[in-house]
Amino acid sequence: MARVFLILCGLLGVTAVALGAFGAHGLETRLQALPDGAKRLEWWSTAAHYHLVHALALALAAWLVERGAGAAGHVAGWCFVAGVVLFSGGLYLMTVTGQTKLGAITPIGGVLFMVGWAAVAVAGYRLGGGGG
User: Fold this and answer.
1) Helix 2-22 and helix 71-83, axial crossing angle in degrees, nearest 10
2) CA-CA to 73 of 20 to 30 Å: which in 34, 67, 81, 91?
3) Listed residue (57, 62, 47) closest to 16, CA to CA
4) 124 contacts 65 by C-beta, under 8 angstroms
5) Model confidence band, residue 109 (pLDDT cutoffs 50, 70, 90)
């Protein structure tokens, strides 16, 4: 599973950078003319930021799985992946479509991010051991 998480980490990382650059250079000129263009660019920026942060968090989950942290490492990894899809994906879709109803799925992604980070804490506790 660590290998799967590392592969997904790389794929999420490259797509986060590509989508962040697209937002800064490709979308900006297209959205400036819209009345809510500035807000949409803010959504995109937030999506790309959380996307990249949680791509890196996935590497941490892979490390925890490799260290034998038990189910908590797996939970963390899958929560980070699903969180990116729902949180960042929802914001990306809202940006390009203007459909704010899509924002209803972003809190689910945010909760998954929090569950993932809590699972990291549990995994760290379970690694426990030697004096540190």
Assistant:
1) 20
2) 91
3) 47
4) no
5) very high
CA 53 – CA 22 distance, rounded (Å): 17
Query: Per-residue pLDDT tens for 50-74?
Result: 999 999 999 999 999 999 988 999 9
Instruction: Give CA–CA dist 63/115, Å, rounded.
Output: 17
Please give the Cα distance from 96 to 68 (Å, whole number). 41
- Tokens 């989950």, residue located: 61
The Cα 28–Cα 10 span in angstroms is: 26
Distance CA 109, CA 106 (A): 5
Alpha carbons within 13 A on the beta-carbon side of 45: 9
Count Cβ neighbours within 10 Å for each residue of 64-93 and write b for 16 or more, e otherwise. bbeeebeebbbbbbbbbbbbbbbbbbbbbb
Count of positions (residues) in the chain: 132
State pTM to two decimals. Answer: 0.93
